Amino acid sequence: MRARRSRSSDHGLSSSSQTTLPAHLRERLGEELQVFYAYVLSENQPRHLLGLVAQLSEVLDSQDAAYAETFRDELLAVLPRLRAFAVSLAMDEAQADDLVQETVIKAWQHQESYRPGVNVEAWICTILRRLFYADRRTIKREAASEFSADPVTTPPTLEQSTDLRKIWVALTNLPPVQREALVLVSAQGMTYEAAATRAGCQVGTIKSRVSRARAALAGSLGVPALRLVTGAE
């Protein structure tokens, strides 16, 4: 009987070749990812995104000033994390900014489903990830007819940091669903349960994606040394 070949990007490694990293290596890899994610999170927000929030607030002001102020404040509060999440999905700052802009507009269009006190970050990040994966299916960037992948480009702001640039390239080479799972769990510190809720999948699926992503990333970065950001021996 011919063995069935998995079509899912979750199964880039066979179950027999999947690696479970030792705890100390998982911790070290998590530290590297947290430093990287903190760097992305600390970047100044593009002016056009801030301007978009201001424009939407002006429209809302004409309807309900108090509601508009609350909604605007909630959007501004989550904007850095929303953009960082978009960057971790797209691994391209221009695409991430477009994605955030589309997400903010979509959130504004569905403002009736917003209620003060709800978890705005979870709500708006769900909108963003749906748009991202719908976009990927539509444009089919990774079409089977392509003979080679486009070269990985890193943001100009990373040019002065060889260590962060290595992490960027390694993350870019992961399948998006694995990269997302790894960022949610190892960089953002979510539990598997919370990450599964965010990704809309089973807890076991998230665990599998994280495990495969860790193994692939550790291989790309060099598990024996792992001296990238922290410089630890």
Automatic annotation (TrEMBL):
Residues 1-21 are annotated as: Disordered. The keyword Protein biosynthesis does not apply. Residues 78-141 form the RNA polymerase sigma-70 region domain. It comes from the Bacteria. GO terms for molecular function: DNA binding; sigma factor activity. One of its GO terms (biological process) is DNA-templated transcription initiation. Residues 165-217 form the RNA polymerase sigma factor 70 region 4 type domain. The keyword Transcription regulation applies. Pfam families: Sigma70_r2, Sigma70_r4_2. Keywords: DNA-binding, Sigma factor, Transcription, Transcription regulation. Belongs to the sigma-70 factor family. ECF subfamily. This is RNA polymerase sigma factor. It comes from Methylobacterium durans.
